[in-house]
Amino acid sequence: MKFDILTLFPEMFVSLEQSVIGRASQKKLIEINLINIRDFSKDKHKKVDDTPYGGGAGMVMMPDVVYNAYNSISQKEKAKVIYLSPQGKTLNQKKVIELSKEEHLILLCGHYEGIDQRVLDEIVDEEISIGDYVLTGGELPAMVLVDAVSRHIQGVLKEESTKEESFTENLLEYPQYTRPEIFHEKKVPEVLLSGHHENIAKWRTQKALEVTKQKRPDLLEQNIKN
User: Fold this and answer.
1) pTM of structure
2) I want to staple 63 with a disulfide (CB 3.0 to 4.6 A). Which of 25, 40, 98, 119 is the partner?
3) Is domain 2-150 given the CATH code 3.40.1280.10 in the classification?
4) Mean of the pLDDT values across residues 14-23?
5) Cα–Cα separations (whole angstroms), residue 118 to 52, 53, 64, 67, 114
6) What is the pLDDT of residues 177-220, one digit of tens each?
7) Which part of the chain has CATH 3.40.1280.10?
8) Is the bond leading into 180 cis (omega within 30 degrees of zero)?
């Protein structure tokens, strides 16, 4: 999977060099390229934004600078271009798995009051949001998307790691325990110490249902509808 990320703040993405995503990059399972939009400004001060036509607060990123940055990407013909925007559809596990099947994603990070609509109309395939709130830019959502999608790339995690986690089959994950066996007078559930795999599986399924009913009953309602 190749990720090309168009951003004004490439230094924000240093966190993607760590942990699971960092190891996946080192193993060449994923490729992350950062493209600084500011590098494509022809202004001597590297200006990338201007005041909006019609008035209003804030500044708008100019279409030519964004387009030139996008156009610098090689072999983009089959890529899916995603604009990280609070106006997009909310990212969920179903969309994450769908995107993990792509070979090339181009992520466009907006800033200020947004990006000139004309370039969005020309290059963007889909807008995605990570929630109903506004951030200062698209960098954090882009990192969330890269992290979530990369976990489903073959070889990044063990296959069983993603089969029973939250949102699989519209259920939250069951509670997890590790050593010590007793912590603050609370003992690990006996069934997990039994070694009886069938009983453990039944317990985990039941607990997943209970946790989902308590914390996200809307997910159970989706199961009923489906």
Assistant:
1) 0.89
2) 119
3) yes
4) 95
5) 13, 13, 10, 10, 12
6) 999 999 999 999 999 999 999 999 999 999 999 999 999 999 99
7) 2-150
8) yes
